[in-house]
């Protein structure tokens, strides 16, 4: 089996950080079909892990993810039904599990972040990159377009102008370019990347986990594709007046602890 996606819970002073590692030796962590399926399983598990407070996703070694594992492509890309199954079930299954995850996700992006790597990064909440990271989706050189759901995801994250250049010119971009575009949260020197990402994950994990999950649910609802004018207001109304009360946290332990700690001028313990 080519490659794997593994999840390891971090120990140490700040529990609750789950490290997800993309690993495909010799292929710059390019995503194979089994890896897409594992990505889905891993994130579905994290979603139901009550102790998870933050996910840190990274590629093993010096690359985040160089795209898809092209060595597999002749086995299915030339048959429309098999190709549909790959994109709609394997790839979108993994990406949609990330998008549905209520636990905050921080991406550690080093080296190549191409194609599938950009798609995976687009599912993250905070993206921190090394200054020498490179981004793109030069699949036009391989003779095929980006699948519709994936193109919508990437264009929504990097912006339509950058997405058009990636897909139509096979253009690649620096970390500085995508920081200016708003895709990246921070860009740091390569030697500082690990410390910066860990610090971000630990800050998130130290905060109220229930509040983080509720914030992600609200933000996800706001990104629902508009079906008609005023859909943003409809999305808010569906949250406020839906079956799940968005204010049900009122009597929760972490809500009481946060307010009590502030009033007592002490650090909260969540």
UniProtKB/TrEMBL annotation:
What does the UniProt keyword field contain? Lyase
Q: Which GO terms describe its molecular function?
A: lyase activity
Q: InterPro entries under this entry?
A: ClpP/crotonase-like_dom_sf, Enoyl-CoA_hyd/isom_CS, Enoyl-CoA_hydra/iso, Enoyl-CoA_hydra_C
A GO BP annotation: fatty acid beta-oxidation
The record's annotation in Gene3D superfamilies points to: 2-enoyl-CoA Hydratase, Chain A, domain 1, Lyase 2-enoyl-coa Hydratase, Chain A, domain 2
Record keyword Iron present: no
One Pfam assignment: ECH_1
UniProt lists the family membership as follows:
Belongs to the enoyl-CoA hydratase/isomerase family.
Task: Give the protein's recorded name.
Answer: Enoyl-CoA hydratase/carnithine racemase
Which species does this protein come from? Answer: Paenacidovorax caeni
